[in-house]
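Render this sequence as a predicted structure.
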Amino acid sequence: MCFAKETKLLSGTHINLQENSEKVSTTVTTSVPMNCTFDIINPIVPSLSRIDVVIGECSLTINGPDSTSFNTIAVRDFVRDGNTNLTLKIQPRVGSCNLNISDPVTYTIEVSVEDFDGGRCNAASDPHYRSFDGRYYNWYQTGTIIVHQNLYRDFEVHGRAWNCWSVSCLCGVVIREGDDVASIDMCDGQFSYSPPKVKKLSHVTYNEGFKIYRDSSGRRFTVTTPSGSSVTAVVTRYWITAIITVPSDDFGNSNGSCGYFDGNSTNDFLLPSGETYMPTNVFQNYQPSNFTDSWSDSSFDSLFNRDLPSVPTMTPSTYCKCMSVGTDEVCSSATMVNNVYAVFRSGLIDITDNVASGESSRRRRSTGHHIQKRSAFEPTRTNVTNETLAWPSNGITEQNATDNCNSTLINSEIYAACKDLFENTDDLLNECVEDIQLTGSFDSVNDILERFQSQCETAVVNNYNTSSGNFTDDALVVQLESLNCPGQCSGYGNCTNGMCSCNDGFEGDDCSVNSMVSPELFSLNDEKTLRCDVRNDACENISAIGGPFTDNGNLKCQYAEDGDSTSISVSASFENFLEIKCQFGELVSTNYDKQKVNSKASMWLNVRVSTGEGDTRKSTGPGLTFIVYDPSLA
């Protein structure tokens, strides 16, 4: 094969790629003196209507006799779209060669791409696990566990569980890819009154593609990484449901409590030793403590407490699409990812910059870096069981629970859209009934809609039609995009074009809040009585914890000085459904000046919150005490 009559080429004329393998380097060689630039053109694969490989750079310069090389890697698309074959074109750039090439010829390299699946694992509430390969079991322990880790690439997810009633519930997750680390954690506070804290744990700047989002309800948080991996945490007062989505790189390269991930659920209980735990009875199959114990050993290096590097140790590789010649090519680490699950993540709010700056918890007078305070709580591993659970639970019978779970699911819009993709939903219904038994209330019943939505999305992705090059049911994909509402409107509204229309008496972007009920105020900055040092603490922005809150534009904090019956309102910003930030900046600075003039060491305030128009719907109870003081005047 020749570039010109005198020019011989190409060593490595066929490239074999796999969606779960590393980049492949191809060498281009010339045997005669030349100085030419060659463009690489990457075609759209007709069956996919997109490219299926990306390239390290779009042009090559050859100073011969010499050789040069370029890298290719398969696009990670998370879908079963079949193997593909394509042809890369290599052609000399007009006017760039010192040879007389009057009729440039385009040369080709054939590329084959072997398809591999992405995967999704769920760890729900107390925690009910569904592995990447679909195996269902329960983990009844407190402590920290390795949820998932890739054996060869630098990606891992750790989780931890606290005591909830007579069992354990997932209360926090940490996600790490390379140097980038973030946590979504409510394990630090009091059970049922601990808002989710989203924290940056790494000490270096986040890489491109590492993003943190929340939905408009403040109950759902998603972390995405440059590899296309994502972790979504759906938060309630009592627990977190974690949804871990990974690219094909992890197929056959995984371990942890989400299983081995190779398409075979029988070997999911892989131990750190490399052996597979094989349950010998039904109880061990659904509560495999030998398996979960092996991934929650106290000796492993927990991400919740790990010392992390203070300087970057790695940078994601960048790749280019190279689809045409003469255009400005934007190359990044994101080009190798085409995550089809992204169509189900519309309407999210990017909070990466706020989290990365430590805005929600940095001190008023900082020491130069804004990394948020780590959680000091590390639960000791404890085995718990659900043997003490019995019916009726707080007056609710098993039949009441079953009927409520069943009607919530089958009367939902998401069930009507997806029911034909499932033979049965027995596992989901069993989880729902068990959670009602655990809590003694119907508060958790709408969680079944979030879990069903996740399984529906996975089923849709797995029903990709390789012959047509599209989803088996395009109309269903469009419908699911339309039904992608926060919390599926909590069962108290209708979902249209990704937005909830709430029933009378309910409000919020997810319709989860009873508009006739006043919010609760539980603590200020996690304290019943908050003392704030105006010289050293961030007294201007105070967390009011309670709720439930919605981002309705009417959030206020009210305060009255000790002995004064007149309340003053200040604005409040929405953080999540359990937390708002009271903007006390002017109050603190004004009264700080007063204190200096009057030599008064402290100011005592009674604080309440309101969530209705015109400062209506005030928090219940007498309010909480906020003491602003100056230690220099004490």
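Summary. The radius of gyration is 28 Å. The chain has four domains: 14-114, 117-316+358-383, 389-484, 520-633.
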